[in-house]
Amino acid sequence: MTDRWARAEERFRQREAERRYRRNDQAWEDYDDDTTVIPRYTDEDHDEVLAAERSRRATQRAERGEPRRGRPQRTEGAEPRRARGDGLGGRSGAASARSGRTRPERGGSRTDEERAESRSERRRSAPARGRRSRAASRKAAERKKRRRNLWLIGALFVALFAGAAVFAGMKVVKMFGAPEDFAGPVGPLVVVQVHPGDTSNQIAEEMHKKGIVASSEAFFQAAVRNSNMNSVQPGYYAIPSHSPSTQAVTALLGKSSRVGNLVVSEGRQLHDQQDVNTGSRKDGIYRKIADASCVGTGTNQKCITYDQLDAAGAGADLTALGVPSWAEQRVRDVPDRSRQLEGLIAAGTWDFDPSGTPDQILKQLVSASARSYESTGLLQSGAETKLNPYQTLIAASLVEREALPQDMGKVARVIVNRLAENQPLQFDSTVNYALDRTEVATTDADRAKRTPWNTYAMPGLPATPISAPSLNAMRAVENPEPGTWLYFVTVDKQGTTLFTESYSEHLRNIEKARQSGILDSGR
Fold it and tell me: What's the pTM value of the predicted model, to 2 decimals?
């Protein structure tokens, strides 16, 4: 009986241990922490579980009609339990009484049915605990991965911040430190362009790009200290390379540094001409370009020559020369190729890059002139005059050579009226164009010589423009002054010009001109 009681008591202790340390699966499912330890349970949780289990078992026993577990019931005739020490003489008697009696079973052992139920319950809970364990492992792995990603992102931000701090530090040092600058000696000349609207900072960037200064900051600091920088004009400048910033600013402001600056006066022709009366040479546009192309001084000076420009201007590749599309076909038909660009370089002030080739220089000037002509409305004109854009350019060159500004509208009207009547223009300026030596008056022999430009010898317009017209002359032909005039003549050296539609009156006006001496020839 004693062994049976001991085994029952051992089983009870095992059950109690399992209940006491059994994991609450619901608490584990709801547990969300970054640790992977088993949730901690309090005694209150254990007491609640134990009470519920006892209540369930008591209900099952009651249903089966089993007696309630607890202290064994005394049966009829059983000897009542002695009080401790009664009739046994103290502790030794009590011990003797304990060893001499048999302890009753504590409510009896579990039945086979209960043990089977317990084993079945453990088997059912085992897969669920395995699934929950695997889910917990996955969550732990995900948390570990998130922590690793957070560390990587944090490290990246730290690296970016450190790089930005280093960059800002370098900027600060560069800002407050002296900018890089050349100390000398200077190198060969370099051509640099100042564009319209350029600021000192933009000029400094261009200077640094061309190798003139060591840094744009050094040039900018020197420029802002010089109040004359406000007077710098757009154009091309020859500045020594590897210059100290202050010297570069001084050179830019010097008059001798300006290169590639061309002034074409109204009515000037491409080639040189000689005046009959004075014998002096009148420089043509090619000569003007050659002079403006020089860079440097003395033996180091480099220039494009007059002959190089003349040869380039006669080239067959009109696109390479910048000839506009509205003039291209007529230019191809010009009988003298050396004169094919006549009139396509307009009167005015122009800037070109003197470091370019002759073809590049001519293309730059012709293209800029075409844009200038088109700004007057050239491409939209001709509805009233019946002239195409190139014919309008030719007529404007005649007006430029024949009239003073106040008479340009009337001379343009005479041209339009005569062309409408298919009447020869008979302009002395067209006779002089083909001559090496010119004057206001012309001889009978000159007027009788048939050339593609002599309007005494043929009707219509000359083959090309005869000069560089101004924009005022262009506008006069595009919108000629209303009138019926067919003739005009300048009657004195002050430029007084008389207009008429009567030929007889025109002859009388010519006599006035002869009397004033303006028609006297020096040949």
Answer: 0.65
